[in-house]
Design brief:
Elements lengths: L1 E8 L3 H8 L2 H7 L3 E8 L2 E10 L2 E15 L3 E9 L5 E12 L5 E12 L7 H24 L8
Antiparallel strand pairs: 1-7, 2-3, 3-4, 4-5, 5-6, 6-7
Length: 154
């Protein structure tokens, strides 16, 4: 499954970059996130509870950051396991482009793979759920960063 989109955030690129690398900010905006811990300079671990169709599962996983070019972007690679519900893994290319001095366009290109019971739900349900979760994440991220509510980001 592939998701590709962009969102304009009315904050400078440095502020958006700091927010994208702040576990506290991400914990607030990742749908279903129960825990997110920065365990090294280039990785985080966490737990997320998601409901996809009739299946609700708790996923434990790790994300790593590579190809980091601050404040332009990075590649995120992640994998989560949800027991009998299955697994999800994927890669996201994230790029930040300045849009004048006070705005940033965040572009993302995500490729994911799921397996187990979740994969049996069908591509249409998985696609619509993934798009809904991505929209929720970026709407919440945009709102949090735009409002300056994220500590130390205003």
């Amino acid at each position: 499954m592939e998701l590709k989109d962009s969102v304009r955030i009315p904050k400078d690129r440095e502020t958006v970059w700091r927010a994208l690398n702040d576990a506290n900010v991400l914990r607030e905006v990742i749908p279903g996130c129960q825990e997110l811990v920065q365990d090294s300079a280039d990785s985080m671990t966490g737990q997320i509870v998601l409901k996809v169709g009739p299946i609700k599962a708790k996923f434990s996983g790790r994300v790593t950051f590579s190809d980091v070019v601050a404040p332009e972007g990075y590649t995120i690679t992640g994998e989560g396991k949800g027991g009998i519900a299955g697994f999800a893994k994927g890669t996201a290319l994230v790029r930040l482009d300045a849009d004048g001095p006070d705005a940033t366009v965040l572009r993302y290109d995500v490729n994911t793979e799921v397996g187990g019971k979740i994969a049996q739900l069908g591509a249409r349900l998985l696609d619509s759920t993934a798009k809904k979760l991505a929209k929720q994440f970026f709407d919440d991220f945009n709102n949090l960063v735009s409002d300056g509510a994220a500590s130390g980001l205003a």
